[in-house]
């Protein structure tokens, strides 16, 4: 085990002890027995925890609620909710009957308000609920809010560009569009891109629900059991009722989700701290939201800002989600084109209002489980020269002089106002921290905040009395337990969001697989419904497998799924609707070139996993500093303390003692480049390539593509084209 302190001999011969075990200037007055006993939040000497031994930072306080208590309080509620959703799917089975059109597009009779409700519920998926919690906790408000903002934008794009023409086409699935306009080859190209994209999207929903179930049933020990349990439940009610069950459960989940999301957000905003005040982890303080977060890469000084990734997220999801088959299925199922348009617009409003409000919830999680909280854990062997530490944030002592504190009786602190204090720590500011410069986020931090209901839960310290919480003062400590009813309601928000989008993903995959693939191999219309239901098993297993490989990547999987769609299918989608005379070969090459570019750039561009590329503070942490000579250079100690003949090491000394590398993650750049390459290829091939004569590039009749007798409304269907050269392909 390590010694509690290391002693070095300074240049003047005096002994210097570093690191200090009195970071707040309060003095360690514990006896040896007390130190060994180690009360909650402080490591004992025998623990030999590097966080305490090297940095003088108390060990993370244990979570105040046991696994069994969470299971009894929240696990039972979550399981009951999933059972109810499964029963709704069985009810929908009666409505579907044996008609595949009912299964796929709910009989084409949904009114605008139902479309808005199901779009809003689907939009507030695991990416917005769990993903926004994770990203908002790890980074800041914009990082969580860009998810609902971008999904809302996608619905406006649908309303403006796609709702009327897609409704008038009377399609069964989205790939039918490419078969009708550009032939079977382009239909299959879209199908391949879609399968990859939606397998990842479904995985994102399963991860979100699975992570929650893992916390409330298994204590966060492993996400895998929760993932497979949720996958089975989502599959069960989707396989029975198709889009009817999706709509029915979306409405029920929407009632729980929307009301719980808004009620929970309002409760947290009114009763929880939304930003830490000035303290050791936040030397400049914090705010619930920085408006400049999307324009200034250094807005979160000294925390890196993933600004490029956030703008890429808005583009990728804003465009990619607009061409998602599960969203388009709501248009196909609309009662009229106006119902489709208004449903998309109001769905966007629902997404923006509820999603952006929800993005404030992780601000409370940062306050209560972030780097300034009693639960904080750090990498001890890490330095950071960008973090300014005031040195100590002691609350001082309660003033006992009746002349200065009139309430005092003269008997110690009896009757004294605890807000009147003296002996505040006035340490010299130190630019940089020599150890514990890297925070280790708790991946279950936001969920712990929502499920911690005891009086001693969710501890908070207001070091300087500037947190904005009413009635606080320097050194104030308090707790913010979550009422069990409110916490359970907010847990259902996340579960409902994950399940309401997961069912749509399963249905979309199964529908397209059976209709656009299996029918090509002789599956009859009579057997189509059965084939669709069986294929749901395949996609559920595939996506649950992806979820198991990335069990803690809800938000990232959501973005990746739409990134795949945007790279290869965005431009062909617009071309199919607004340029039906384009060369089918050019459209096919656009599918291939966009997707291939995205694959190449995924491995060609530098990506270190930080999602950060811009800004002064986009740097890694360096190795911890333990030697006194290095510490002098790092802190410029002689100059800071005003010693005689002090050596000014300057910035060069700080860099030498704590070398930090630039963060370099170009994730997002490839999202912009891939569709741009697709446009260039599309135009070049259209101008240079001959018109194809091969049957796979000839338009398919509406009846052959869709398989129903419904006729498109006011839509011109291209006749098969024959190239001048019969051998042209």
> Biggest β-sheet: count, sense, barrel?
2 strands, antiparallel
Structural Rg: 30 Å
- N-to-C terminal Cα separation, in Å? 74 Å
- The largest sheet has its strands arranged as 1-2
Shape: globular
Quaternary structure type? single chain
Taking all residues together, what is the mean pLDDT? 78
Secondary structure tally, helices: 24
Number of strands: 10
Short structural description:
The chain has 729 residues and is mainly α.
Could you please describe the fold and organization of this structure?
With 729 residues, this protein is mainly α. The protein has 24 helices and ten strands. The protein has a two-stranded antiparallel sheet with strand order 1-2. It has a two-stranded antiparallel sheet with strand order 3-8. Helix 6 packs across helix 14 and helix 8 packs antiparallel against helix 9.
Features:
single chain; 729 residues; mainly alpha; two-stranded antiparallel ribbon; 24 helices; 55% helix; globular; disordered N terminus; disordered C terminus
Detail the topology: elements first, then pairings:
Elements (H helix, E strand, L loop, with lengths): L5 E4 L5 E4 L13 H6 L12 H6 L11 H30 L3 H6 L6 H12 L2 H13 L2 H28 L6 H8 L1 H35 L5 H48 L35 H14 L4 H8 L4 H22 L2 H9 L8 E2 L4 E6 L7 E2 L22 E2 L7 E4 L4 E2 L5 H7 L7 E4 L13 E4 L4 H34 L7 H25 L4 H25 L5 H21 L23 H8 L1 H4 L9 H8 L11 H20 L13 H5 L23
Antiparallel strand pairs: 1-2, 3-8, 4-7, 5-6, 9-10
Helix pairs in contact: 3-9, 3-10, 3-16, 5-10, 5-13, 6-7, 6-9, 6-14, 6-16, 6-18, 7-11, 7-12, 7-13, 8-9, 9-10, 9-16, 9-17, 9-18, 9-19, 10-13, 10-16, 10-17, 11-18, 16-17, 18-19, 18-23, 19-23, 20-22
